[in-house]
Amino acid sequence: MADQGALALHRAAYDGDLQALQTALRKKDCDVDARDKHGHTALMLAVYRQHEAVAEALLAAGAEIDTKTKDGWPVLCEAIGIGNTPILSRLLDAQVQHDLSETKAKSEEFLQVLAARPDFQLRMHWDVHSWVPLVSKMLPQDEVTLYKRGSELRLDTHLAISPSGIGRGDMTIIIRNDGRDGLMLYHLNHEKRGYYRKQVFDVGHMTPEKRDMMLEDLQTTEQVDVSIDVDHAVCTRALSGIYGFRTERQETIGEYECDVYDLTQVGVVSKHRAEHLTPELRAWRKALIARMKAAHAAGRPAHEGRRNSKCSADGDDVSPEDVPSDSADSDVDEDASAPLDQVARTNHNGDDEEEYPDPPLSSLPRHEAPAITFDEYQASADPPYLGRPFTTKDKRKNHRATLWMHQGFPLTIEHLVTLLEAVAPTDPMIHSMTTFLQQRLPPGFPVKLDIPVFPTVSARVTFHHFEERAIEAELFAIPKDYRLMGVRAVASSTA
């Protein structure tokens, strides 16, 4: 239970009493992110009760924007459901500033790791599989190669991954410091002989136009949260031999002697909520996605005329392959989940375009806060939900993983994660691996490991052929005959 100082802060936030709030904030021991007996911070209460000035004062006092409710949703998501645009806009500004400070730190750490390590080459073998037999037969393997040279990084892969599935491709990602432009990521598509150019570790400059577009996307898109949960995982040493004569299992992977561990109850958890979407918008989305998938299956480029000049909430462009499908590994609700930026297409090939109708952008009215006093709220054993009522569609798929841990591998987990996080926003497989590697693992480096990718899809990754050597400069040059297909900005998700 919160102390008396926190109680005064929560009461002021709940009641919208700005003067009382400022008095509470001036106290030395004031914890602006303290939680009340129901797990709410003062910022959450101000958002639920729609007190704009109080929410602004709490953010100015350093209230944490990423703090989540007991149900696991950030306060920004709660504001989306309530429908108070001024508060949502202010929270969005705070989220962008928070992401900006984080990405600056990541950029500095990335460059420090590159500077500290000798040049090297590392190969990763990916064996993608599924517990669904038919799906498993169709999933590919890949040999991914990572090169580090000075302050440059290159990753070669042949897996093309999107929510519609996993296929083959021929791609290279190059990260290099381009002087005044900072760290830039070049995504080369060797089949199309073209590339996209992105700024890494940057959320971009927030303009009024961009804020409006981001707000529109947030208010017209289902909220989805996907995470890897190892809090309930059980890690044990794998055993070999027959009953009564069993010993701890060890195996040699390449040149590395490894201790083998079993990890059970590793969960891929997805949560969906869409209480802020109108029935008209849900129906429009369902029809739109069906048409987009039909256009993609027929090989036609997709385009939606009204929004073709707009960027998405994260500033990224999306290809038709990103449209969710009915495949076994898709975990997206077709009624509401695809953001409007997925219909903002740019046709780079000059082909005939598929036109789509404008979306119905009318929104639900602002949610009215329930008529309950702070004392009633505080005294209740199980208080009513203060936001717009909603029902989540939660899914959890537990995976079993095996880890082959080697003591003394020439690359640490921390260094590998720092390097791959620069690539992770462009590759769901790399993102899954970096997320998994940041969990609590047994001692050593996982020379071989199983990671969950989608609820029904896992990958077995084997690290091999690590070699410290001089890396050729030509590997980091963009071929002169490759055309620029677009300029994008990499940004963090706000949900």
TrEMBL record:
Residues 162-479 form the Ankyrin repeat domain. Coiled coil: none annotated. Keywords: ANK repeat, Chaperone, Endoplasmic reticulum, Membrane, Repeat. The keyword Membrane applies. GO terms for molecular function: signaling receptor binding. It holds the Pfam family ANKRD13_C. InterPro entries: ANKRD13, ANKRD13_C, Ankyrin_rpt, Ankyrin_rpt-contain_sf. The keyword Nucleotide-binding does not apply. This is Ankyrin repeat domain-containing protein. It comes from Monosiga brevicollis (Choanoflagellate). The lineage of its organism: Eukaryota, Choanoflagellata, Craspedida, Salpingoecidae, Monosiga.
